[in-house]
Amino acid sequence: WKMSTPAVNHSLPIVLPEAPIFERLRESLGVFSSNDAAHDPELAQLGGLLEDTTSLLVMPLVSGSELRALLFAHMKESGRVGMNEMELARTVANQAAIALENARLYEAVRQDYVDVIQALAGAVDARDHYPREHSNRVSLYGVAIARHLRMDEPFIEAVQFLSHLANVGDA
Q1: Taking Cα atoms as reference points, which of 105, 124, 112, 107 lies closest to residue 163?
Q2: What average pLDDT does the structure give for the chain?
Q3: Which of 24, 27, 48, 163 has the highest local Cβ count within 10 Å?
């Protein structure tokens, strides 16, 4: 096996066309392997996506019992996928699925955090409109100062959100 990064002729991610193979993989959460991708009837609808591919291995990226994505391993040369390669591909697919799930969970928690801050700021605004204007100015100045100091984006985001809580204790 040789590892290479193929030239990409289109932007990623690619929305795959409807094909029976994808429905089968979605239902079974199994692995698909072909040693003759150009003539495999299950891959006929994929057309140009498998250009220059002789052998193909498709691994599901699963979170819980839900298919999140598919990992494609293309080979230009004809070759059979052995047990070692299959286990390595399964390990890579499992690690990628975990990373995707972690990113999804992080974004969900982050959004909940933003919602709580907005709700608290909204409660203060309901009592008095001055804090809202003040919080917005504090946020603008804080973000400008943080950018000027070349702070990283997570820090800048924290300044932006937390500045809206400056007047919560005054309410």
Answers
A1: 124
A2: 81
A3: 163
